[in-house]
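--- STAGE predict ---
source: upstream dedup step, 1 unique chain passed
mode: sequence only
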Amino acid sequence: MSFPDNTAELKAGMPQLRGRLLANQALRDLTWFRVGGPAQILFMPEDEADLAYLLERLPSDVPVSAVGLGSNLIVRDGGVPGVLVRLGRGFAGIAVEGDRVRAGAAVPDLKVAQAAQEAGIGGLAFFRGIPGAIGGALRMNGGAYGRETKDVLVEARGVDRQGRVRVFGNADMGLAYRHCGVPEDVIFTQALFSGTAADPQGIKAEMQAITEKRESTQPVKSRTGGSTFKNPPGQKAWQLIDQAGCRGLKLGEAQVSQMHCNFLINLGNASAADIENLGELVRDRVKASSGVELEWEIRRIGLAQSP
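--- STAGE serialize ---
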């Protein structure tokens, strides 16, 4: 499967572009599920200015999306049309500023927790329990073990579809449970988090407890995408799935985890359609069992069919 290659045309109109434009780039190895088709164009900007340069000059009819570490993501089998932005080394900086931590959007959440721990900054240990990178935590108000990104965020930076660099204070983000109110066309590039002074050894113990709980209750060594569905108000998604008889349910090479049934697993050769269709089957059975309509937490992008 492949898309038309228009990289030469785009490069000709952007002579000062420094990042790489790759046509029909395979994405399956960039996602935790290890499924999905190619990106029509994968763009890896050198830095924020390079990203802004592309977005300002990219024709308005070319769709743009972004991907981070691929942890909470299903790339559909037909691939992703347009330009898919993947942030790399130019967005991987991390710095401690007093009781604050500034991190690029490509920094893994784990590394933010570690930097805060080493600097004696409490309140950020929960990032140890969130798979993925800071860009994703901002986009979905990532949270774990009783805390959310909105509890510690000071401000975020991003670039919009017109190539403008924008700064959003916490109140501007519209953060709620697994939700961000910033327009989808904004690609986050950086965030500033605030904590409080705390004992580094105490923070280390807190992070170790999170690690142990996560490894004992979640299929972290499987090809999975993290929590599949949002928790409905006052309820737990995994309990509703379990009550609907879906623990261990299979469709093709996709399975509902036996360990934690709000996780879907690629048993080895699943397609993206297997995983997504299994999720929809779970939603149908939960709706029939409890009347609750589960909402996807995992992001799904691309075309279901080959272009």
